[in-house]
Amino acid sequence: MFPGMNPRKMQQMMKKMGVSQQEIDATEVIIKTQDKEFVISNPQVSKVNMMGQETFQVVGEIQERAIDNKPEISEEDIKTVMEQTNVDDQKAKEAIEKHEGDLAAAIMELKG
Fold first, then answer.
1. How many separate domains does the chain show?
2. How far apart are CA 19 and CA 24, in angstroms?
3. Residue 76, exposed/middle/buried by CB under 10 A (0-12, 13-18, 19+)?
4. Nearest of 45, 52, 57 to residue 20 by alpha carbon
5. What are phi and psi of 37, to 5 degrees?
6. How many other CB atoms are there within 10 angstroms of residue 106's CB atom?
7. Residue-wise burial string across 81-101, b where 16 or more C-beta atoms lie within 10 A, e elsewhere
């Protein structure tokens, strides 16, 4: 952290200030946002506790991946909408997708 400083003295100083650090043996770290993931391979992870406030410090190889937010639509969901609205499976599936998996909203749209 500070060039030329004795690591032992640094630990003592951190302890006096109420700071403790713990190394975490992680194999992968994933940070998810609304539309993407950050995957950190071969990470070096440190958990730092400073006066009761815990933070993590992560260093590693970062890859960014897009997330597919489409809900999974089961055959049972499609059948339910078909039975309630008397439409074919394609229309039922499209309505469910449009309403992001909300069966009630899909049924209401197809009925009205």
1. 2
2. 16
3. exposed
4. 52
5. -120, 145
6. 28
7. bbebbebeeebbbebbeebee
User: pTM for the whole thing?
Assistant: 0.54
Q: What is the pLDDT along the chain (112 residues), one digit of tens a residue?
A: 567 788 888 888 888 888 988 999 999 999 999 889 999 999 999 999 988 899 999 999 999 998 877 778 899 999 999 999 999 999 999 999 999 899 999 999 999 8
Q: Are residues 53 and 79 in the same domain?
A: no
Domain membership of residue 55 as a residue range: 17-66
Which residue, chain included where needed, has tokens 């958990």?
Answer: 47
Chain centroid offset of residue 77 CA: 26
